[in-house]
Design brief:
Number of domains: 2
InterPro entries: Homeodomain-like_sf, HTH-type_TetR-like_transc_reg, HTH_TetR, Tet_transcr_reg_TetR-rel_C_sf
Protein name: TetR/AcrR family transcriptional regulator
CATH topology of the largest domain: Tetracycline Repressor, domain 2
CATH superfamily of the largest domain: Tetracycline Repressor, domain 2
Keywords: DNA-binding, Transcription, Transcription regulation
Shape: elongated
Distance between the termini: 71 Å
Organism: Promicromonospora vindobonensis
Pfam families: TetR_N
Number of strands: 0
């Protein structure tokens, strides 16, 4: 029979597994992380792991959902939605997202390795994956842009195109090695962010 755990023990083990997953997935990714590495810090055997998570992918998803909720609060709730000035809102979104990419290694890993999310999607049922919808920063950004386009505050009619332009700015810190001088990437980022945010919001009222 599986060993029983007290509530305190379960909480401790869960926290330890999440901490181990965060460190290992960030450093070496989902595929290269062995179950033995995840359970060792918690002092449990591999078979006991499944009393806490169905799979490595389920642990990865839990971390991703936790990260997505906090990142959404940072880049959407406290940045994008913090002002009615659309250009300023887009700039705040871009600069705050840059801060997240620089200071949150797990989120940076999630952004730069979409194949890991695909591996999660392949192993988990759609209902569990749908749980990310409410906390997904990309979904919230798309909805914001759609609403602003309908109001005439953002140019264009396809929100995916405007969001794509914003996402293109965010590729700069992920590809600094391709810049003429990588040391200038923050200045480059600021310039491109301003150009894109201004370009998306300064043609209101132009003839179509």
């Amino acid at each position: 029979m599986p060993r029983g755990f007290t509530t305190t023990e379960r909480d401790r083990i869960t926290r330890t597994l999440l901490a181990a997953g965060r460190e290992l997935f960030t450093r070496q990714g989902l595929r290269k992380t062995a179950l033995e590495e995840l359970v060792a810090p918690a002092g449990i055997v591999k078979s006991t792991f499944y009393q806490f998570f169905d799979s490595k992918e389920a642990l990865y998803l839990r971390l991703m959902l936790d990260e997505a909720g906090e990142v959404k609060a940072q880049v959407i709730d406290r940045a994008l939605l913090s002002t009615d000035d659309v250009r300023e809102a887009l700039l705040r979104f871009l600069h705050t997202t840059l801060d997240v990419l620089e200071n949150n290694p797990l989120w940076r890993r999630l952004v730069t390795h979409p194949e890991e999310m695909a591996a999660v999607a392949a192993r988990l049922d759609p209902e569990r994956l749908a749980a990310m919808g409410d906390t997904n920063p990309s979904t919230a950004l798309l909805e914001y842009v759609r609403q602003r386009q309908e109001r005439g505050d953002v140019v264009g009619a396809d929100p995916a195109v405007a969001v794509g332009a914003l996402q293109a700015v965010l590729l700069i810190p992920l590809n600094t090695r391709y810049l003429a001088d990588p040391a200038t990437y923050r200045t480059t980022f600021d310039l491109v962010a301003d150009i894109v945010a201004t370009g998306l919001t300064t043609r209101r009222g132009d003839p179509t």
